[in-house]
Amino acid sequence: MTSTYVTRFAPSPTGYLHLGHAFSALTAYKAAKDAGGKFILRIEDIDLTRCRTEYESAIYEDLEWLGLDWDPPVRRQSDHFEEYAEALETLAENQLVYRCFKTRQEITDEIARAPHLSPSGPEGPQYIGAPLKANEERSLMAKGAPYAWRLSISAAQEFLGEKFHALHFTAELENGETQRVNATPALFGDAVIGRKDSGVSYHLASVYDDALQNVTHVIRGQDLYHAAHLHRLLQALLALPEPVYRCHRLITDDNGKRFAKRDKSATLRARRMSGATPEAVRAELGFR
After folding, report:
1. What is the pLDDT of residue 2?
2. Is 238 exposed, middle or buried (0-12, 13-18, 19+ CB in 10 A)?
3. Which of 170-209 are b and which e, b meaning 16 or more Cβ less than 10 Å from the residue's Cβ?
4. Which residues, 6+ apart, have CB-to-CB distance to 6 below 8 Å?
5. pTM beyond cutoff 0.70
6. How far apart are the first and last CA of the chain?
7. pLDDT of residue 1
8. Helices assigned H by DSSP within 125-189
9. Burial degree of 247 (CB within 10 A; 0-12, 13-18, 19+)
10. CA torsion sign, 175 to 178 to 179 to 185?
11. Pairing mode, if any, of strands 38-43 and 75-76?
12. CB 135 within 8 A of CB 162
C-alpha cells in the first residue's frame, strides 16, 4: 500500500547549497522514506535577478552527491508565472489585495507615527494600508510607478468572517507528536504577495505549489516558522488544502551563527572539492 505522505525540498538557486541546506534536505528526505512516501524537489527561482542556472545545476549535483533522489518531475517556479498570476487575480477579484505605491521610507515614516503598528514583524515593517482612490491609482499606473501587491488583512477578515479567528495549523514536533497552533496572520500586517517588476512573492507561489503537488508535510527551518501563519490564511482564501508543518532546528557554525550562501567554506561544493565524502557530511549532520 502506497503512503500518501509527500514532502519537499525547495531551494532557491541564488548560491551554492551549504550545510544548513543539506540538513534540511536530509531531514525531509528521511521523513519521506520513513513514512514510505514521496520526496520531491522544487526549484524556487522566481527572483530572476538573483537566480542563476549554474546554481540550479549545482543543486542537482550536490543532492545526488549526498545520496538523495527525488520523485520527478522537478518543478521550476519560473516556468509557471502565469499560474501564480491567476491565483493573484483570484484574490484581486475578491478585493483581498491592493496596489501599494509607498516607498520603504514612506512606510517606515508612517509606522513611526502609528503606535499600534510595529517596525519589526516577521519580515520587516508590520504595515497596514488601504487601496488608493481609483483616479489616483490610474495616474500612478500611467506614470509607470512601481508598486507591491499587498494582502489586506482587514479585507481577509471580512471575507472569512468567523472563520478568520478560527484559523489554525497543525505543527509536528521533533518527537513526532502534533499540536494545534492558532494562526495569527495579522502579525505580518498587509503582507506583500507580489510586485509589479517581479510578479508573485515566495508566499503565494509556495502555497500554490504545495497544493498543486499534493504536499502533505512542509518541512523547513525554524526561520520560516511564522510563514505558516500567513500561508494558512492564503490557503483559506484560495480554498487550498492545509499541510502539516514541521520546523527543524537551524545548523550553525562554532560561534552559533547560521550558515549562509556567502559562507564559501560551508558549501557542499567546497566540502566536496576539499575531499570530504558524502558519508562524512551526512554523519556530521547526524544522518547515517
Report:
1. 55
2. middle
3. bbbeeeeeeeebebebbbbbbbbbbeeeebbbbbbbbbbb
4. 32, 37, 38, 40, 213, 214, 215, 216, 217
5. yes
6. 26
7. 44
8. 134-142, 153-160, 162-165
9. buried
10. positive
11. parallel
12. no
What are the cell numbers at 29? Answer: 528526505
For 89-145, list the strands marked E by DSSP. 97-100
Length of the chain: 288
* Dist. CA 158–CA 279, nearest whole Å: 53
Residue 34 contacts by C-beta under 8 Å, 6 or more apart in sequence?
none
Residue-by-residue DSSP string for 222-245: GGGTTHHHHHHHHHHHTT----EE
* Grid cell locating 213: 503537488
* Structure-block grid coordinates of residue 52: 542563476
Instruction: Report, as ranges of residue numbers, the positions in the chain whose pLDDT lies below 70.
Output: 1-2, 115-116, 198, 261, 265
Rounded Cα gap, residues 59 and 16, in angstroms: 7
